[in-house]
Amino acid sequence: MRPVPGSPRTRHRTPLLLVAAAGVLATACTAGGGQATDPAGAPAADQQVTVTVWSDYTDRELGVLQQALDAFHASHPNITITNQGGQDDDKITQSIRGGNPPDVAISFATDNIGQFCSSGAWQDLGPYVGRDNVDLTQIPPAVLDYTEFNGVRCAMPMLADVYGLYYNRDMFERAGITAPPRTMSELADYAKRLTVRDPDGTIQVAGFIPQLGFYANHPQFWAPQWGARWVDDAGNSSLATDPAWRELFTWQKELVDFYGWDNLQRFTSGLGQEYSADQGFQAGRVAMAIDGEFRTAFLAEQAPNLRYGTAPAPVADARKDTYGAGAVTGTVIGIPRGARNAGAAWEVVKYLTTDTGAVVNLANGLHNVPTTRAASTSPDLKLPEQFGPFLEVFASPYLASTPTSTIGDQYIKFTEDFANSWQTGQVTDLAAGLAQLDDQINQAKQLGGR
């Protein structure tokens, strides 16, 4: 999950230890590790078992998880749960390598699922899902995609982050704009109309910040709006062969040039940090922004007087019939290799990810999107009005996630590095640059075992 007020967490990183240890994990698989064929049974009602749960939650968020685990224990009194926060993927990986893992692991890094599944570091949950007839149709395909790799389901989704558009209502009214943009041409037009500059060109208010790499402006959160594909049917990088990527980068560079790169840099350097109270949109210096549903919680606490609306993010003009598309990522949960109480651990995992009441309570407490259809349409959801469009995006057939890979999010990092070279003018031949980017990604995949 993205951080809520008071939490420093962010998912824009790749655990260095996990990347370094990927090869070690892959060679360390043992019988009964990631590809179990006979799922462990749940403990008998009179069998006392202790299950350890590790996550990177802290403070208030850890308390929300504890409430869910307490509810589980109330209905399973023989299963005692030790809930330990502040445990990131690096620590989880170290524990697996050291032969002393938790029974249940919760991760905020969906990009690592390819490594977890292919190495056997997290056990295959497929046999459990099949044995217990878990209804996976309750979970959107895009969410199922980021919790498995090459047919191995080594994780289940536990809440999601969905991306949409935030807009300042007061600024819209002053500019005579009556509704949020639905297409990228409208977004660019509104951005220009809403921008306020000094006579020397200095930006005082930006209608929209087109700078990739700033705040939530990351390629994986923009790609679904153009329908851009990361890989082709053969599994090769397709940024040069899918014309949607050229359209995305062309649109983005034209808006960068409207502002001027130096002007844009000076403006963004004067804005607050992404999760601080003076973040650009919250401070009224940015009129529109693409961001996750978690921003509603920040706004409620840090900018309660800001009049804002939310909507699905605009889509490419040629894809206007896909309006409602959006990016999704989220928290994942699984059973590490070597877990001492795998049968009981699965009962905890199943409860936190498929029990409608549990998922709704977690969503209400953590201000994230529930990951089952039953929970996302539950009347018991108690979230702000502006949360509604994110639930609409979650239900869209055009919801999209990034593909899992054995190289984690390295291909996204390569793309963001390319984007920086492109937007600063260092790359002038877009087609040639994207072809080189594909080669770089494909070579990394070959080294990482795809």
UniProtKB/TrEMBL annotation:
Q: Which InterPro entries match?
A: Bact_solute-bd_prot1, SBP
Q: Which region is the signal sequence?
A: 1-31
SUPFAM superfamilies noted in UniProt: Periplasmic binding protein-like II
**Where does this one sit in the cell?**
Cell envelope
Any one Pfam family match given in the protein's UniProt record, by short name: SBP_bac_1
The alphabetical list of record keywords is: Signal, Transport
The record's GO CC annotations read:
cell envelope
Family, according to the entry, reads as follows: Belongs to the bacterial solute-binding protein 1 family.
Q: Cross-referenced PANTHER family, in alphabetical order?
A: ARABINOSE-BINDING PROTEIN-RELATED, BINDING PROTEIN COMPONENT OF ABC SUGAR TRANSPORTER-RELATED
Question: What is the annotated role of this protein in its UniProt record?
Answer: Part of a binding-protein-dependent transport system for a sugar.
What is the name listed in the Swiss-Prot or TrEMBL entry for this protein?
Answer: Probable sugar-binding periplasmic protein
Name its species: Goodfellowiella coeruleoviolacea
Q: Print the organism lineage.
A: Bacteria, Bacillati, Actinomycetota, Actinomycetes, Pseudonocardiales
